[in-house]
Amino acid sequence: MKNDVIHVNPELLFRWNKAIPRYTSYPTAPQFHPIESEVFQEKISSFDKSVKPLSLYVHIPFCKTMCLFCGCSVVLNRKPERQSLYLEYLFKEIEQVARSFSSRRDVSQLHFGGGTPTSLTEDQFEKLMAHFDKHFHLLANAEISIEIDPRTFYADKGGKLALLKKLGFNRVSFGVQDLDPIVQEAVRRRQSEEMTVSTYYKARELGFDGINIDLIYGLPHQTVERFVKTADRLVELRLDRIAFYSYAKVPWIKEHQKAIPDATLPSTYEKFQIYSEARARFMEGGYTAIGMDHFSLASDTLATAYLNKTLTRNFQGYSIALAEDMIGFGVSSIGFLENSYFQNAKDLTLYQEQLKIGNLPVMRGYVLNEDDIRRREAILSIMCHFQIDKLKYGHLADVSPLVAEGLLEEEVDRYVATPLGRLFIRLVASSFDAYLGKGQFSKVV
Ligand SMILES: C[S@@+](CC[C@H](N)C(=O)[O-])C[C@H]1O[C@@H](n2cnc3c(N)ncnc32)[C@H](O)[C@@H]1O
Ligand code: SF4
């Protein structure tokens, strides 16, 4: 299957490797502007008239140590009381939002992200889930998922993992990034292979239906030779899904990334080769390439969603589309309700202060206009299905340069991304972005 390794002429690679959004939203976050929480209330009232289910996201920002590559919204913390106080405010927020609806709304997806949601204690997990149960109606077949740091699960021999299963969580994703100790040392994330593998087997034993793993390419000291060892070992485990992210280098936002010396990072060409070789290993191991950066076994719901064209993309990356409207809880979280984005205060103190005085902590947002809605649909179609309907969206962008360069192929009624175009799908999507150039982003590779 060596032919699955895609080779790109270095000159084209440099030309295509632009700083472009990952399109987890459209318009992207730099377009959000200060918004009154009343706008959010109005959208809740309008949504209230429908019977659509909701998707919920809850952000737990705390991490005990900072991984040098991290681009997430994190609060470095070792004080348990700080986390307990945060939960009190989170409960308040959940209650206040739920009270705005006239009935207990159906929820088809609940996702815990971070930071490190598994920094919550067993008691905190129980209380938080009871709180969601009290204020929302979690559907029997709801997807309840969480991002797990295996380092927080190792010491108790799987006790917390068993509790999550009991509480109804059915999908878990483990942060791993790379199994190589040299890379781990360089990013200050020490996580032995034993920690990762034993947590994985414990999750299998407990019967979780969906087990994912997060990997990153482009980290310091990664080479093709060493990274394929990580890829081969993980393929052996038969994870349901592998998220394979390009290292998003954004030191102007995440100061700690500056502690990674540039000289230790693979060059753009090497980074692309690491991606391409690992991709070949995943595909040879029976995984299907989904969207931009996911690989999944045919039995996984993401693969089914991809085949059925129900795959979608939100702030957590690729997802199965169970509910279009999402409410975000917790500091910095982003929701999407009635064609509008809403973001909570990014600062922990501000988030808590707003709730203390009885306000919802929504600070920024964006109400999409008709043109934004069409472009958002077009970008979702490209990012998720690698194609675009000519009649519906063709007039929104001139894609002829992409066709000429071999990234898109023109068919009678649509444009379809070529295998090469799929690797640069952010670039293809960006031609439909009316705000391109407004905001600083990480590079495609
Ligand atoms: C919130 S973390 C996962 C949970 C937990 N904090 C952990 O690290 O195990 C979400 C994922 O985002 C990815 N990530 C974080 N920073 C990134 C960056 N700068 N570029 C690409 N991916 C990144 C990592 O793969 C990480 O596992
Ligand atoms: S990668 Fe995960 S554990 Fe590391 S700092 Fe980021 S959120 Fe925390």
Description:
This protein is an alpha/beta fold and 445 residues long. 37% of the residues lie in helices and 22% in strands. The protein contains 16 helices and 20 strands. The protein has a nine-stranded mixed β-sheet, with helices on both faces. A four-stranded antiparallel β-sheet has the order 1-17-16-15, covered by helices on one side. Helix 3 (80-99) crosses helix 11 (348-356) and helix 8 (224-237) runs parallel beside helix 9 (268-284).
Features:
16 helices, 9-stranded mixed sheet, binds S-adenosylmethionine, 4-stranded antiparallel sheet, 445 residues, 37% helix, alpha/beta
Largest beta-sheet characterization: 9 strands, mixed
Low-confidence stretches: none
Instruction: Please give the number of β-strands.
Output: 20
What is the mean predicted local confidence, pLDDT?
93
Q: How large is the share of residues in beta strands?
A: 15-25%
List the helices and strands and how they pair.
Elements: H1 10-16, E1 33-34, H2 37-48, E2 54-60, E3 62-63, E4 75-76, H3 80-99, E5 106-114, H4 122-135, E6 137-148, H5 159-166, E7 171-177, H6 181-186, H7 193-206, E8 210-217, H8 224-237, E9 241-246, H9 268-284, E10 288-290, E11 294-296, H10 301-307, E12 311-314, E13 317-320, E14 326-329, E15 334-336, E16 340-344, H11 348-356, E17 362-367, H12 370-385, E18 387-389, H13 390-393, H14 400-404, E19 408-410, E20 414-417, H15 419-423, H16 425-430
Parallel strand pairs: 2-5, 2-14, 3-4, 5-6, 6-7, 7-8, 8-9
Antiparallel strand pairs: 1-17, 9-11, 10-11, 12-13, 15-16, 16-17, 18-20, 19-20
Helix pairs in contact: 3-4, 3-11, 8-9
The protein binds S-adenosylmethionine (SAM) and iron/sulfur cluster.
Residues 69-72, 113-116, 147, 149, 175, 177, 214, 216, 245, 247-248 line the site of S-adenosylmethionine.
